[in-house]
Fold:
Amino acid sequence: MSTSKIHLTIPFELAKEVNKLAGERGRSKFIAEALNEKIQKEKFKTAVKECAGAWKVENHSELTSENKVSEYIDNIRKQSSERLKKIYNE
Structure:
């Protein structure tokens, strides 16, 4: 990945914490990782908002109670296990 130099102004106490956690030689990497995490969270939040209302309970009657959800998950796990046994001839 190519890099770019930028100038940031942040509160002094925040800079002190970054230096304490990452060290002066690790600031750029620490801040880049923190920015990447924040960007991914924001993208996820946007995707969730855009999908709001896409799930309709009436379209998924198999998932309307805790017991039904457990049964559904157990069934998926069983099918997955059976599929793997077929693949690996067990």
Notes: The helical segments are 12-22, 27-51, 66-87. The mean pLDDT is 92. Residues 56-90 form one domain.
